[in-house]
Amino acid sequence: MATDSQLAMWEVFMQSKPGANYIHAGCVHASDKKMALQNARDTYTRRGEGTSIWVVPSDAIVASNPEDDDMFFDPANDKVYRLPTFYVMPEGAKAI
Amino acid sequence: MELMEKAGKIHEELLKSFEAKIERGDAIEPRDKMPDAYRKHLIRQMSQHAHSEVIGMQPEGNWITRAPSLRAKQILLAKIQDEGGHGLYLYSAAETLGISRAEMIEQLHSGKAKYSNIFNYPSLTWADIGAIGWLVDGAAIVNQVSLQRTSYGPYSRAMVRICKEESFHQRQGYEIMAKMMKGTKDQQEMAQDAMNRWWWPSLMMFGPHDSESPHTGDAVKWKIKRHSNDELRQKFIDKTVQQAEVIGLTIPDKDLKWNESRGCYDHGPINWDEFYRVIGGHGQCNKQRMAHHIKVHNEGAWVREAAEAYRLKKEKQLLHS
Predict the structure, then answer these.
(1) What is the pTM of this model?
(2) Which residues of B277-300 are buried (b: 16+ CB within 10 A; e: fewer)?
(3) What's the mean pLDDT in A1-28?
(4) Domain B2-283 listed as CATH 3.40.109.30
């Protein structure tokens, strides 16, 4: 007898309207791409919440580790010259 | 000994930084370090919540073929589909804690995991469908609105999604009751009868009084639970009494009265013996609900097997093409 399986897990991303970012909605179980897409539609867009869906096998997602946050995101913190507010603009200059 | 002390110290520090995070109001995400007790509490609560959504489809499914109009049938179908969807949101949120879907279903079938007691009551008449939507979903909403601010991110996000959908459920139930109260004398009596049977079990949905609740301590400290059982129950009573009055239904509690000084309603004693009797497996439908779930689960096994076989075949074809 084959062992019962709850099928593989897929992460669901939805776009609420054309032009919007794809946002993580949750996950579904499915055996293949087609079923994953259909299950995602049935589970996450029963009220027109989305116009487009991505499904990705959950084990294909690579995530950063929260314990490494300080080190991992540190380069973003000490380079304030990446922000427009860092620069001193001459008095009177417009539209910049 | 030194090693044990060191381990204890590390444990203590982790707990400290976890609790500081909770204190700041930060959400906890799946890959964050969390105490075992936090993870266990969430798995227990979230899987029970998911099972409740799914088992809750049964008393309503009982009326699909007998809905009094096509409109009512369509609405009921959509509502039951939502409940299935809510179960799926919650299962997938619980899976982020490291428990598999198969384990959760196994725990439901073995009786290790519970589901809401309310679904062990039968749905005898069409008015029960009204009462379930209005009272049972109404009580669930009060709880779920509060849980939108629970500390575990995936649980909180599932709650936000569910709350958006639940208000349709409550309104459709109230509409059924309102319609019956405008109908014949028989219909009015049927609505009142449903009210009489569902009111007290709905109050029990919030769980034991705060003074008796065994799970409250850590759950409050770690912000899994944001309001106590009694606070939520009071909120539900206070908003429902007026709704009953508007459509002419009587709340079956002779002790119910407005308490001017507390600014809310006082209610009569809840029959906790009944509550524990039903939780203990002796409600009217406990056996039927579980037997049905197990039967459907087993009968669906070939579908899952076939889907897997189809995937394997497709992968093989791809390999050889």
Answers:
(1) 0.92
(2) ebeeeebebbeebbeebeeeeeee
(3) 88
(4) no
